[in-house]
Amino acid sequence: MRIKGGQVFCLERGFAERDLYIEDGVIAAEASPGGEYDASGCYVIPGLTDLHFHGCMGADFSDADAAGLETMALYELGRGVTQICPAGMTLPEEQLLAVCRTAAAHRDADKPGAELVGINLEGPFLSMAKKGAQNGEWLHKPDAAMFRRLAEAGRGLVKLVSVAPEEPGAMEFIDAVAGEATVSLAHTTADYDTAMEAYRRGAREATHLFNAMPPFTHRAPGVVGAAFDSPGVMVELICDGVHIHPSVVRAVFRLFGPERVVLISDTMRAAGMPDGDYTLGGQTVRVKGKLATLADGTIAGSVTDLMSCLKTAAGFGIPLADAVRAAAYNPARVLGIDGRYGTLDPGKAANIAVLDSELNVKDVFFKGRKV
Predict the structure, then answer these.
(1) 243-251 contacts: CB < 8 A, separation 24 or more?
(2) Region 103-111: what's the mean pLDDT?
(3) Distance between alpha carbon 332 and the CA centroid of its chain, in Å?
(4) How confident is the model at residue 281 (pLDDT cuts 50, 70, 90)?
(5) How far is CA 138 from CA 95, 125, 184, 192, 264, in A?
(6) Which stretches does DSSP call E strand in 124-254?
(7) How high is the pLDDT of residue 178?
(8) In this structure, which of 248, 291, 326, 350 has its CB flanked by the most CB atoms within 10 Å?
(9) Catalytic residues
(10) Long-range own/partner contacts, residues 18-25 (CB < 8 A, 24 or more apart)
């Protein structure tokens, strides 16, 4: 197949009009027999990878429900998110084991919808003081043995784990598991020095930067400053127009560079659903418009899918090529799947989103086929 006439994303050069070829489900270097797709007036970008979201369409990853996970995968694919790495909440170990087993069974059954490429263990190794929408009753001290039980249940899918580095045993936890998954600092009261030590020991990410961590100030730069001072550390950013002010979004891209920013959605089960009351991690959440809050007013995740976050970032003044990189290539690199996903280079999977001039999803190609 030939996709013609579109502005095609390139990691090094941004956007340029060129033809894109698909053969046997992958991007091809030259034309091959097949039909044509006219993308004139559109942007052609790699399918996105969301490495941090909890649910959508009434379903939540933490439910450990096979049908719900399939619903999530189908919704995400329709939004141009072709790879998913859903996140679990702070829950009892038995429920987290069920979540991991359900994900592995979904992957092995080759279910329809976006491809499940990982599991993100956002909880339970977090700080009570910065738990946010996590359920404090089920917080657990950092525990490498527990992590490995969950990883075994996930049969190779556990790719990320969050930890509050100031918690007792956290540094030893990072020493133990940094070679087995990407360790991210999250829901933490850590100061700059503690965060720097965690990054020195092998942590490589900051979960939803600015949220559930100390502020970035001139005398106490905290996790944000430590992440900046640690080359190679990636930072997640929720760009839904609620969690982070537009000026701060622009500052983060300037401070860290587009190479180190990972756009995430952090959506909960209310994404794609009407306003009303929902649940997250066993707690009631009220949704009105783009805002989801607990009873005490704490912001509880997002209801804005990743493609809409990309569009919001561009609306805030982030160059479109940088926003695409942060939502497509950078998360794939964090997960170690950038050899197959995240760009439109020959040999990569033909997972493609076509956006109109207003950055709305027009069509999605998955494994080379228009879905």
Answers:
(1) 243/208, 243/210, 243/211, 243/299, 243/302, 244/209, 244/210, 244/211, 246/316, 246/317, 248/210, 249/313, 249/316, 249/318, 250/316, 250/317, 250/318
(2) 97
(3) 9
(4) confident
(5) 11, 9, 19, 27, 24
(6) 158-163, 182-185, 205-206, 234-238
(7) 98
(8) 326
(9) 266
(10) 20/44, 20/344, 20/352, 22/350, 22/365, 22/368, 23/368, 24/368, 25/349, 25/350, 25/367, 25/368, 25/369
- pLDDT tens track for 153-177: 999 999 999 999 999 999 999 999 9
The predicted model scores a pTM of 0.96
Distance CA 8, CA 298 (A): 40
Q: Which residue's structure tokens are 């989801």?
A: 292
Burial class of residue 276 in the structure, from the number of CB atoms within 10 Å of its CB (0-12 exposed, 13-18 middle, 19+ buried) = exposed
Residue type, 283: Q
Task: Report the run of H or E that residue 262 belongs to, with start and end.
Answer: strand 261-264
**Scanning the structure block, which residue is given the tokens 């719900």?**
68
Which positions ≥6 away from 362 have C-beta within 8 Å?
A: 42, 354, 355, 356
pLDDT tens string 291-302: 989 888 888 888
* CA distance readout (Å), 208 to 88, 110, 213, 238, 312: 15, 30, 9, 6, 16
| pLDDT tens sequence across 320-360 | 999 999 999 999 999 999 999 999 999 999 999 999 999 99
Instruction: Return the structure tokens found at 121.
Output: 């263990």
Helix 144-153, helix 93-108: angle, nearest 10: 30
**What is the Cα gyration radius of the chain?**
20
Residue 5 — left, alpha, or beta (φ > 0 → left; ψ -120 to 50 → alpha)? Answer: left
In three-state secondary structure terms, 97 is helix
φ, ψ for residue 249 (rounded to 5)?
Answer: -60, -45
For residue 260, the one-letter residue type is R
